[in-house]
Amino acid sequence: MTSMTKYDILQKYYGYYSFREGQEVLIDQILQGKDVLGIMPTGAGKSVCYQVPALLLPGITLVISPLISLMKDQVQSLNQAGVHAAYINSSLSENQIAKALTLAGQGQYKIIYVAPERLETERFLHFAQSVDISMVAVDEAHCISQWGQDFRPSYLNIVQFVRRLPKRPILSAFTATATGEVKDDIICVLGLDNPETLVTGFDRQNLFFSVEHAKSRTRYLQHYVADHDKESGIIYCATRKNVEKVYETLLKEGIAVTKYHAGLTNEERRQNQDDFIYDRKSVIVATNAFGMGIDKSNVRYVLHYNMPQSMENYYQEAGRAGRDGEPSDCVLLYSAQDIMINRFLLENKEVNPNFTEEEYRTIRERDEKRLQTMNFYCNTKECLRTYILRYFGEESRGACGKCGNCQKHYVEKDMTSEARQVIQCLDDLDERYGINVVVGTLLGGKSAKLREYRVERYPSYGTLHKFREQEIKDLIGQMMQEGYLRQTQDKYALLQTTGKAQDIMDGICTVTVKMEPRSSRIIEEDDRIKGTGKRRSDILNTRGLEFFDILRGLRMSIAREESLPPYLVFSDKTLVDMCVRLPMNREEMMEVNGMGAFKYEKYGGRFLECIREHTGGIREKFYFGELSEVLGKGKKR
Fold first, then answer.
1. 494: domain CATH number?
2. pLDDT at res. 482
């Protein structure tokens, strides 16, 4: 393969003529023998950054991956493209591992995926010391940082493993989400040598972000899934109980749904995951135990039934939508109760026994700060994309105009007087209660709990009775974001004032809140979200959509024959491009987006035959608009 160029590799095995942003920079640095760190959002093509040079370097590339499903998916995808690759993990028997290592030693594989735990075994170390290891690529590199959201002690094995090799290989590290602190930790702990560090930007413009304060989250889900019945989606829940609840609800609605959580057996999880990946079930309801390394390209929506614990977790999970670059929805259904659920989960999560008391306390404080940031995201009225990008240290270019908040009409209202009432109420209550009691007191509520606390005796009782509950919560949320109020970092989450609150009472500052006009439609049980608007398939007319379904049927037949996920045959994007271009020969088919030489030899003929059969060799206009607008200039990523 040494006579091939990086462009030859890209075209032959991936079906593209040009690299995405950042890919070529990292590939060139690796080929020059330099260490690299790539921080690139999900769907940006991180794997290409180490797979392409792996095929050009003289020896073997080891890819360290945290999950068996990730390795299996990547290796299957490479083999489908015509690249010989293997994985070594606990899913294989010792005989299978021995055979794979023997074949690798004979030059059968250029790329080997391996679990970090496997690096400690004498058999694997002996193999690595006896062959030429050109590069060690660390996927999900944030797992090596104890300050990250997904620290895995097994990742520390990588450092010792590299030191025991006869010669130091090139080190490359990749992750989708990393704050500045985690980035520095990756470089330091992995021992990257003056690496080329590239942050391509966290913006995923094809994703539509929305936070919905629905009256009934369950009803909202029912409507949303029904409205997107032909699309593939993931629904995340914080607990197994909620997974089961949502799963049963959708099952009763006749939805092709499956589930995934740690309470299922290994076989049940494997079967359910395969049902989703192979398109036997269109929807999967899961805890955050599902998804890392799942490269299913046609996930059109990710719904969060509960608020995640951090922006890192949310962006990683939401980012599993639209990996093919097509418009996709990321909708978070918010309830204030989610804060309590997440605090309970954080307090009971497994702790590394090697942490000192001070380290544990620091990590717990950071967990709480992340949770608070996530809560602010769910309640902000500013552009959601701007909020996300700013969190990851990236400057935005102003409101995006296409997230849920940007599509709502807000009016700014001076609520300084009302803010004083909130502060007075907290003083009346001796700052001993959470948000719900404070809001109930200000509204003049008559619930059993409020009567038990005898809040009607306080001067602040009912002073904001003319406002809606959500309006008062919006005000409190704004005061928290601006640092006038805070919540205690315990399971009670008591609402308290800070030193800055006195500035409001003294008239030194004002509090302005964005609010929806009273005439605005409030989301009720039967409301439905419209989402992103156009999918790529929306460019097709009625006959085009019918032909798209025919091509999908052929893809499904091939996938079943070869026991493959359909998206590994061709992505939806490739099928739509076939509908638009209607290629009639090999040369024209090779212009289709994602059509590599290997895949053409394997499947191209059957798709050409299908196109000719259903068109009679006559090109029809299966799309709307001008062809140049639909196809763009040339075959690009």
1. 1.10.10.10
2. 93
